[in-house]
Amino acid sequence: MTRDHAVSADLRTSLCIPSTTLNRLYTQCEDVVSTDFRLSHESGNPTFWRCCGPTRHPGSHISVFEAATGYTVAVKFELNPTVKKQIEAGEPFDLVIINPHMVHDLTALRKIKRGSQVAFGRIAMGVAAKAGSRPLDIRSVEAFEHALKNARSIAYAVDGTSGGYFSGLLERLGIADEVKPRLVGIRGGKTALAVARGKAELAVVPVSSILAAAPDVMLVGRFPAELQSYIDFAIGISADSRDTEAAKQLSAFLMSAEVDGTLAAKGVERR
To answer: Which residue has the higher pLDDT, 44 or 209?
Structure first.
């Protein structure tokens, strides 16, 4: 299904995305959030799965989309490995946004419908600091190394994909021994907030999480191009979806140009 595929406005039954979905899609529980959805028609009795992080206001297009439909989407946010384990254990879902290799693994296990995978977007790595901190130049590899070596403390996601990449990067740059004593491991997807709470001077985390933590946290900058690592996401539809056609329509909407601006503002890059 291409990104130009439009969701027809005159569908007798289409999909409804709750007011928080797109604005929260990649801004919560940072490293690295996956999202799964359950679909229910208005005549049913939907169960809303828990979401983490603060509520954010939707764009006007979401409100219009909601008003025209008869489905409800229940959304759940978790770290990627957690969602994968839950799906493997049999937890029901209709559509999931997760790392591509996990979609592949779940497809092999017949948990995701073969052929439903779509590349959704990617998130770059960045450096965060408390709002109002002095500007730092990290545009070059040399400047990036200098900032790390001179930081009093650096928070990173000890239980996430980005934290693993950052640890390996320090080794590759040959500054691990110098920097590691000042690292602050953060669990539970709250790495960006560590700088706002005074737990660290800098934080290394996906850009989406830094933008989500504003105004208390600011984006110092993205990693230099030579060191950049992107966290990719893909959509997959459940092999046991209660309404496969509805899930396909939701996938088409999430891939449409209509939502590109919202995602870009949250740090998600289309490819």
So the answer is: 209
